[in-house]
Amino acid sequence: MNRFAIRCAAGLSVPFLLAACSSAPSSGDAAGAGSGSGEQQVTITVGDRPTSSDPANRAQYDQKVADFQKANPDIKLNPVETLWDPTTFQAQAAGGQLPDVLNVPFTEPQGLIARKQVADLTKVLKDDGLMTQLNPNVLKIGQDQSGNVYAVPTAAYSVGLVYNRDLFTKAGLDPNKPPATWDELRAYAKQITQKTGQAGYAQMTTSNTGGWMFTTQSYAFGGSIENEDGSKASFDDAPSRAALQALHDMKWVDKSMGQAVLYDIDGISKAFAAGKIGMYMSAPDAYRTLVTTNGLKASAFGIGPMPQQSGDHGTLSGGSVQIVSPNATDAEKAAAIKWIKFAYLNKYVNQDAAVTAAKNGVAAKQPVGVPGLPVVAADQYSTYQDWIKPYVNVPLENFAPYTKVAADQKIIPEPPVKAQEVYAALDPVVQTVLGSEKADISALLTKAAGTVNAKLGR
Questions:
Q1: What spans are recorded as compositionally biased (Polar residues) (predicted)?
Q2: CB of 46 within 8 A of CB of 339?
Q3: Domain spanning 160-282+418-456 has what CATH number?
Q4: What's the pLDDT tens digit per position in 401-447?
Q5: Where are the alpha helices (DSSP H) in 116-201?
Q6: Which fold has domain 1-157+318-396?
Q7: Contact 258, 351 (CB under 8 A)
């Protein structure tokens, strides 16, 4: 679910079940006239056009199409409203109704690659020069074991720990040093509660966000949710039990999690912005909602990397990639990469586009320069940051603990199969642990694993 720029949990992570994939017919020359050569026009169908019920974004999208075609007269775009929808994707694929280019979530590329449902883009990315401009750590999401690339990341996030710098200061904690381990997080949460009377820590628990954040926490404890091929639940184990025990002890022993335990993204954001929560797991672009929407003082926002426990295990990541039809010709692949670069990555690789986007953000009174997990390589991202530096209107120093670590922190995708159904099965586990002091953690995990295995085995 791209809830964070993301935003992750609520809808992007459901797998494909059928084996075949085809693409909407394209009028590009199968003989391979080169895009950009002027020899012959290539036509590709591109998805993700907003519907007429969203006129502002539709107009922006259509303008981008027009601008692209003006800059690339030998490429004709046929925009369609097709979006990634796990309930219709396979029927569209089987019926040849998918566009040549489509946005899908991070959870999908490995399955698509295994089923040969996407084009190999390695050569065209190298020819375009885009390969060296992409973040190699994020690019792995769309690569096979040989390093060939089948999906282009265009938006990414990794979960960290958002914290209230004002509450840290009031509690006698250094606001520039968020906890690095879950043991430290527990100690910080207890101190915040004792010194300020507010919940030192809170965690999402409803609308699939409970399972989503428990997955993130389990990863940080060295655990996993599904085995490698997504055929079996793997969370009925020591790391997941330890993660839940930490929540139980913070809630019932330390009493540092407050009374409210039924939070979704919106609810926890509002409570945090109101100064009622010291720390919770989220991604850097939570800044937008907390400050712009919910009125948190910008100076109170802080974020660090995901605390780890008993080793450097990594953190959950998510985002979006662009895929290309496996039936695309070389010329259509080249045209597709040009469109992907122009529509989704332009501001990172083109100074004029970067400056224009930054100016527009400032004019719209939106945060400009919010750090995150970049989809482009470190050098390219640094160049982009230099381009927009005059327009940045967020306190970058408050993101420093995250940015110093997160770029190198291992990223782990969401569960590869039926992630949303898995999250739904885990929601009540987290809710029960936080709602009942005598909850049987092992029994809860065993029961949930049985529920998930039944779904994975369907």
A1: 39-55
A2: yes
A3: 3.40.190.10
A4: 999 887 678 889 888 888 889 999 999 999 999 999 999 999 999 99
A5: 122-128, 136-139, 165-170, 182-196
A6: D-Maltodextrin-Binding Protein; domain 2 (3.40.190)
A7: no
